Amino acid sequence: MEFKVNKTEEEWKEILSPEAYRVLRQAGTERPFVGEYTDTVEQGVYSCGGCDIELFTSENKYHSGCGWPSFWGELESANIFKKKDTTHGMVRTELLCSNCGGHLGHIFNDGPPPTGVRYCINSISLKFTKSE
Asked: How far apart are the C-alpha atoms of 57 and 109, rounded to whole Å?
């Protein structure tokens, strides 16, 4: 898949912290319950940590208890790319930013209504802008 934001790996390393690079560019996962936005309840918008495209709103966020920020839906404009992931002996659906290809997390079919899905997202893959 081709993404609108195309940077070399060196360019990504210059703009991302080592941990953000590991997660966003190398499909890493941050440890559970340590992410900055796991328990955030403030109103606002969550954007991609790599390119700033808006992905989720706090209205779609809920506390799942899984250790990562969880959302039951994405912004329609986000158009998050879903890809089959067979790493770690599992079959899952990986979520990638449709704008830059950054790894966000995974989606599972154990979420609340109205969608029944849980977008399980790494905090470090996100930037939060509080509503005024």
From this structure: 20
